[in-house]
Amino acid sequence: xxxxxxxxxxxxxxxxxxxxxxxxxxxxxxxxxxxxxxxxxxxxxxxxxxxxxxxxxxxxxxxxxxxxxxxxxxxxxxxxxxxxxxxxxxxxxxxxxxxxxxxxxxxxxxxxxxxxxxxxxxxxxxxxxxxxxxxxxxxxxx
Length: 142
Hints:
This protein is mostly helical. The protein has one domain (10-127). The chain contains six helices and no strands. Helix 2 (24-36) runs parallel beside helix 6 (89-95).
């Protein structure tokens, strides 16, 4: 299970200060990722797929879920998403890999992109209720 730190480091605080006005979603995800990806959800996500045999180490479901959100938010493909984890400090901020020279995961088909029920386990999103996160003053969350 993925358990990134909650408190912002000094470097993260600097990135948040620069990002807060233009790309609020990055800051929101960084500040609330521990609420959004609680143990129950990560367990549910991990059960929703089984890793294919051989090859790569499994990637934590929480990390993949956040990367998938960022990918949709930035409208980028799989290859660009992997590249952004190394090149973009905002992505690194959210995914807890600041200063990484290697991406935290490789290009792979996301297990949640399959059609619901393809794995025989149903759609895990249908059985999950998102937690209520308090938005900072002045922020509107649709």
